[in-house]
Amino acid sequence: MKKNNSYTELSNIIKNSKKILLFPHINIDGDAMGSSVALCRVLRNMGKEAYILVEDEISDNLTFLNDDKYITENQDIISNPDLTICVDCGEISRFPKRTEKFFSGKVTMCVDHHGTSDGTADYNIVEPEAAATGEILYRLFKEMDVDFDKEISNCLFTAITMDTGNFQYSNTTFISHQIVADLYKYGLDSNVVSINIYENNSWEKIQTEALVLAGTEFVLDGKIAIAKVTAKILKKTGCKMNETESIVSTLRSIGGVEIAALVKEDSKNNTRVSLRGKNYADVSIAAVALGGGGHVKAAGCTIEKNIDEATEIIKNELIKEIVRYNEN
Amino acid sequence: MKKNNSYTELSNIIKNSKKILLFPHINIDGDAMGSSVALCRVLRNMGKEAYILVEDEISDNLTFLNDDKYITENQDIISNPDLTICVDCGEISRFPKRTEKFFSGKVTMCVDHHGTSDGTADYNIVEPEAAATGEILYRLFKEMDVDFDKEISNCLFTAITMDTGNFQYSNTTFISHQIVADLYKYGLDSNVVSINIYENNSWEKIQTEALVLAGTEFVLDGKIAIAKVTAKILKKTGCKMNETESIVSTLRSIGGVEIAALVKEDSKNNTRVSLRGKNYADVSIAAVALGGGGHVKAAGCTIEKNIDEATEIIKNELIKEIVRYNEN
């Protein structure tokens, strides 16, 4: 990983740029979304021309932050950006169809908290100890003397609450709570945000979760729990794949489970895998071994195999991780 | 409600008492449990003889706080208490089998945040604006100049995180976050607490949730969702009734649902009801009308009818609440 630049350096680069494009990672989550929208809003408030460029669909529970204003799939929206910033990611595999556009920036920048981030940009702040990229942006905004408002606060809260699992994961620190306490000053409405992100589940999703969990396979005396979201189940319930992400948390919540794996049938020969660890397992090892990435307790990968073959492959990697721990 | 006493008054009474009994409410939840254990530990650290007196079973996910030390069902453990304190409750209906023992205290005290608390004790601090009784105790401990430690911090975090729905409910304030940020100083391990309280679900519970949700009844275009935990389902899965409480949150998380009701078959002619509101409904009105109590967005009651009759009764009360709102 490259040495980080200072907050002042990033602040100065941003101040001197006019046309700015933001690049959150694919399969955009609460941190990538909340951080990108907060930053885009701050940039526009500064008079910049700024957009968030994406390449895949935004899940329904996050669209309330966009307000139809910031996000676009149109790569030509800004032709020669002064500055491109990858947000909550730092590897080109996390924005594969936008790589060329990212490097078309006169200056490139990366703001991220993933340990797997490779510091590929001209200017980088990568802080793996931050619970969320939203925390890094909070500090950057303070350095930039930004006028915080309700929308920016709601976005940063979304980023922090979702990436800390509502202040439960081990990445949560006193800083996460101090930042959120401060955001209330600017009008944060944590209840409205929470209802939007967590209490808009479709009945289809609830039924899908029940069917997926019913087929859970327990491995190594229940230390590993693996469940499959098949195309067949989605067809039966009418649920969209991007609504199924939270099932992996339910899987992990089962007593005795150390690693939870949710295996998702993307297409006939493409399977996506979400991994979660509980106490000691480092699930990023299995994810990286299969070409993916992530954190110690939350990682993922894509396997170009059918769902049954992919399940066997990931199962073997996870068994290795449990065995590795028990040998050490 | 009686006028509150000051924190200094409560602190002085406690300092001058030697034998102290604590009374958390029945169906003990994270706030009642975390608050009682924190207070009991503080009292013992001060050299007091102190116990927590209960009258029903503690759910498995909370027993880790007790450490086999503080809780007893033996009403004779202290014969003539100098001080009795009801914690996280202020109505005798919330400790029905312990009422006489409570009033046997030479001095009685109440520390609570329920608006329905009736200030029946000699000394009262009832703060409905506090998100959890744990927040009130935090302030009391600061007033008493208590030496906080990891255990006390973990207890108060349990109280706050569970009563705020992990900082999502509208009762959450910047104070909740400031307190938690401070608790990290004393060794709070929020991840260990969270794994204990949320990630020890039995497979029986997961299966029960699926079966209970499958039978959900939607009323008034899905504004009300009612699901039943029947004795039959519990027999089939082997799950205990006190493990089913969280299902009501899943019910409320369905998009469009304004009120969620979980109806639990306690015995042939006794049904317990848990209610949750989302945006505008005040579920405490229906709960109070049926002899129960609670908060605007989380309340409950017991109906001495079989589960089907009780379901019709609560359904009618909830319809009234939705209609009442739409008429105003």
Largest sheet of chain A: 6 strands, parallel
SSE topology string of chain A? HEHEEEHEEHHHHHEEHHEEHEEH
Query: How many angstroms separate the termini of chain A?
Result: 27 Å
Please indicate the percent range of residues of chain A in DSSP E strands (runs of 2 or more): 15-25%
Spatially, the strands of the biggest sheet of chain A line up as: 3-2-1-4-5-6
Oligomer: homodimer
**Derived structural class of chain A:** alpha/beta
Please name the two chains that share the biggest interface, counting residues whose Cβ lies under 8 Å from a Cβ on the partner chain. Answer: A-B, 43 and 42 residues
Percent range of helical residues of chain A: 25-40%
CATH architecture of the largest domain in chain A: Alpha-Beta Complex
- Please give the number of β-strands of chain A: 12
Count of helical regions of chain A: 12
Task: Characterise the protein shown here.
2 copies of one chain form a homodimer. The first copy, chain A, is α/β, with parallel strands linked by helices and 328 residues long. Chain A has 2 domains: 192 residues, Alpha-Beta Complex (inorganic pyrophosphatase (n-terminal core)); 125 residues, Diaminopimelate Epimerase, Chain A, domain 1 (Roll), CATH 3.10.310. The first copy, chain A, has 12 helices and 12 strands. In chain A, the strands form 2 sheets. In chain A, strands 3-2-1-4-5-6 form a 6-stranded parallel beta sheet. Chain A has a 6-stranded mixed beta sheet with strand order 7-8-9-10-12-11. In chain A, a hairpin with a 3-residue loop joins strand 11 and strand 12. In chain A, helix 1 packs across helix 4, helix 2 runs antiparallel to helix 5 and helix 4 packs antiparallel against helix 5. The longest helix of chain A has 21 residues. Chain A is globular and about 55 Å long. The mean pLDDT of chain A is 95.
